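ok so i was messing around last nite and threw this chain in just to see what happens. nothing serious, just curious
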Amino acid sequence: MKNILCITYPIDMGNITLENNLKYLFSDNMDFFSFNQKNNLGHGSFFEQRSLSHKIISTASLRKILKSYSSKNKKIIFNSIGPATWGYGAYNIENCILMLDWTRSFQEFIFKKEIKKDIVHILQSYILKKIPKILCRTDKIMENLATCYGVKNSQMQRIPAPLNIELFNITPRPTPNKPKVLFIGGDFERKGGSLLIDNLDMILKKFDLTIVTQDKKANVKGVNYIDSVSYGSSLHKKIFNDHDIFIFPSKADPYGMVIAEAASAGLAIITTKSTFSSEELIQSGKSGIVVDEPKDCIPALMQLSNNKSSIENFKYNIYKQTHLNFSKTKIRDLYMRAING
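result:
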């Protein structure tokens, strides 16, 4: 039994990536437990894992392990507010840390909609205000916690996401005369995939386009359509290696791990300021382009069609910057200082 227990909640591909990255970075320092009984057993769909019945089934195992570690005064780290809520009372809240880039109210907060202040919101507000240290992956989640839950600035600390940039360490290739553009996104509408289809004729005149998604709207003539890729596989790496520009016109992404993956592979990136990883990964105009609105990604892409030198500069700068600032050693050191400080 290690001195730190990290509780993960892998209910979608983004959270599975976060869990894998945390294990990659901290397996020597932490034990891990998934608040997801079917995930621990190796099966179960994402829909089942989000259901109330599944959470109830998983809670018994969660509370048991929390009590076991807390009884020995071990530190508990939650990588989501969900298991911290379901396990409340089974751990010493003064000896726990929360890592966060999303809450139930985050999307409503981003789009300036009314926040649903139901019993879950009230309970999570109570818990969040008691947790002594919350490691926030973006500035926007800090705003959300302060505005919607009353969390104090003194409780929060800004820290990079637990990135594994070594996984896609691919030196940027020379840009061909007709550059290749890549989009990856499961939630096709929210991540802006439809914008590419709506402007397909214009895009294909200047670029080759690959779309990786399970949404069949993208399976149209002219698009290199790929419906599934195993994360970190040779095919996944080859896809990054074979492209020059990554476009991600997302309406809102709490972080956007795929941006970090594209950056580590040295692709020129076009995305929105509402993909909140852009604030720490991209210097707009130097290592990519960050626009205000999803629709602005299309003209930004077209501006690069006759500017091969800008694509080359973006690729070189994002690759160099990402591997300099977010190496395993640097991320580990930042986290361990934050956890133990």
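not much to say yet. Residues 31 and 41 are 17 Å apart (CA to CA).
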